[in-house]
Write a structure and sequence with these properties.
This protein is mainly α. The protein has two domains: 33 residues; 218 residues, MetI-like fold (Orthogonal Bundle). 80% of the residues lie in helices and 0% in strands. The chain contains 13 helices and no strands. The longest helix has 37 residues. The chain is flat. The N terminus is likely disordered. One of its GO terms (biological process) is transmembrane transport. One of its GO terms (cellular component) is plasma membrane.
Length: 328
Amino acid sequence: MASTETSGAKDAAPVEDAPDPQQDGGADAPHAAVAKQAGRQDRHDLSGLEAGLDALDAVVVKRAPIGQVLVKKVLPPISAVLLVLVVWQLAVWAKVADKTKLPSPSAVGQELGDRWRAGDLFSIIWTSVSHGLLGFAAALIIGTPLGLLVARVPFVRAAIGPILSGLQSLPSVAWVPAAVIWLGLNNSTMYAVILLGAVPSIANGLVAGIDQVPPLYLRAGRTIGATGLRGAWFILLPAALPGYVAGLKQGWAFSWRSLMAAELIASSPDLGVGLGRYLENMREGSDMAGVFLGILLILFVGIAIDLLIFSPLERWVLRSRGLTARSQ
């Protein structure tokens, strides 16, 4: 009887209903819809992100119209020159100074024409330019490895780093008397003065550029075997290029100033007549028109070298790093 009752109790026990798939699907349907919508939103966001990255990577090369180039590049300097000429002529008309001290622009132009007709204008300019470029090239060859050595060897940096900074602040004209005594009145004097003025600037510019190179670049270079000279050539110099180019520009400025100081002081037939010597000759003859012409020619050559060599180099460095547009 007991077993029979037990069996009956078991039979009478309520049996749990099996889960209804339709009911569960109905309960999960809102969650599935939300998940599906979120997936579509994520794909949309990723597509937008990829499109944005593609837009950043795409380099749009646009050649500026001639009119725009004239307005932005040519018109401002021409306007500045015309303004200076107008103020200069007004000062002459107002008799701010005697004509022997303040010549008119037309008198300076006449002196330029006289030099052109005499056939010595280009020889005067080329004498100075050739000395300056050769001296700067030698300073580049010496200053670059010196800057690398100072930047990478702590002992060398502690030993001669302050000396380089002091030499950079020393006026170049101070070296001319010593160079004349040591080397005599010849081209070696000119080149020595240029080197002493330009090498510290180039070396310090490279040191400043290397100091700004992230250490991660050097570690990454070592992992691929770029050590020693290979690391300096393929890692350090490219990474330090902005500071290096700034040092080169400053080095050229020091080279040009040093050369002019040497030409003003040192005089010899072996040296020829450069711009500095021409300027001093005009001063000795009290020819202010010639003095003004010499000053303007020195300024013109300095600006021309910067526009033809260093400005394009600087723009290339900035463009390679995405800092300027190609249309500039």
